[in-house]
Amino acid sequence: QVQLVESGGGLVQAGGSLRLSCAASRLSIFSWYGVGWFRQAPGKEREFVAAITWSGGSTLYADSVKGRFTISRDTAKNMLYLQMNNLKAEDTAAYYCAARNGRPIGTASEYDYWGQGTQVTVSS
Predict the structure, then answer these.
(1) pLDDT tens, position by position, 104-121
(2) From the centroid of its chain, how far is CA 78?
């Protein structure tokens, strides 16, 4: 059973940066996993942010974060990261780490494993 634990959320001013981390257990580089970040603001549906192939590093981004956010992973440490720069008020949400058996995609319902979430609040 894959387990995911996020950290690194907090309060930041608009234009600032944060780095989210996700500790991922039982993800083998010899298996085909897609891992990613989603976010959910109050009253809104969960939306895709970014995803990456656990073994090979191919990335996928939502248009709203391209050029500002960078997803990366360190398979030796079993860690997934999301570097968020030039944050905007509309980035405020709970951010979730997720994993699936298969290629990284942007559909939340296709992910099999989820973390508990970490809150990011951007003040304007």
Answers:
(1) 999 999 999 999 999 999
(2) 14
